[in-house]
Amino acid sequence: MLRSLGTVRALGLQDVEDALEVCGRDPVTNVFVAARILESGLAGTRGPLFSYDGGGERALCWCSANVVPVEATSSRALGALAAKVVRRRAWASSVFGPADQVLDLWGRLARHWGEPREIRENQYLMTMSTSPVALGRPVDPAVRVARRDELDLVVPAAAAMFTEEIGYPPYQGSGLAYRQGVATLVERGHCLVRVEDGQVVFKADLGSVALGVAQVQGVWVHPAWRGRGIAAPAMAAVVEHTLRHVAPTVTLYVNDFNAPAVATYRRVGFVQTGTFATVLL
Question: Where is the N-acetyltransferase domain (predicted)?
């Protein structure tokens, strides 16, 4: 049985500023949780974010469908957070974040949650803050922000990307909740697409935006358009738009075994700034 070490408590409305301060120690690494804090406002007394305080260390853990540690650098903090996660949830879809924190945390959760579907131990956290145009990279002028009336085109592309990346569809039965999630990105202007003949051939989302950082996710090229060299200029267009209109730093993380994607991001100008890991459950 896991025992809690130190003080762990759920955070609420009054803790937003302090929680963002913890995330702000490394805004690139922690942008996912920072964005969720801003979106939710930590409403409710038993929200999905809790903190560890002990021995002069302050760490956080987002505990919802995804479990994400934040600044949990000690064994003591990770042990306390793991104990809280086990008490709070019987299951999650993934554990992800900085590789050292995730793999340690998962080692403590595994006995309670059983065998994972997959552990991706080496994902490159990549970042850039310089305009692709300034770097002399080609930028695809056909990539633009998706329109609200294009939702019926974007949802199938988003679902196809999810299925390819994770290995199963993003929903079973009614897809209303998934569609609403995609619609939210479109309404915020955080979904960028290239559309040809009424079909999305490229898509990328700004899935998390906070603390001056935008995290790109959901990058997808239609299978019929792969191998034509559109990915790098399209991604350059995403970065150019994001730097101009959304945030001064752009980041993403990518599986080390996805060589074509890694090469594409490097061609655009991304450099590795950290290492993530994801446990798929």
Answer: 141-281
* Mean predicted lDDT score pLDDT of the chain: 94
3-state secondary structure of 201: strand
Q: How far is CA 171 from CA 149, 160, 162, 175, in A?
A: 22, 11, 10, 6
Give the per-residue pLDDT at 49.
95
Q: Where in the chain is the domain with CATH 3.40.630.30?
A: 144-276
Could you give the CA distance from residue 173 to residue 256 in angstroms, rounded to a whole number? Answer: 33
SS3 61: strand
Q: Is the pLDDT of residue 3 over 90?
A: no
Contact by Cβ (8 Å): 278, 98: no
Q: Which residues have CB under 8 Å from 235's CB, separation 6+? A: 204, 216, 219, 264, 265, 268
Question: pLDDT digits over 100-129, tens only?
Answer: 999 999 999 999 999 999 999 999 999 999
68's CB contacts (< 8 A; 6+ apart) are 32, 33, 61, 62, 95, 96, 97
Question: Which residue type occupies 176?
Answer: L
Give the DSSP letter of residue 168.
Answer: S
Amino acid of residue 28: V
Residue 2 reports pLDDT greater than 50 = no
Where helices occur in 208-270 by DSSP H, the ranges are 231-245, 259-268
Q: Would you identify the CATH topology of the domain 144-276?
A: Aminopeptidase (3.40.630)
- Give the DSSP per-residue string, 139-175: --TT-EEPPGGGHHHHHHHHHHHHHHHHSS-S-SS--
For CA atoms 50, 91, 99, 5, the dihedral sign is positive
Top-level class of domain 7-115: alpha beta
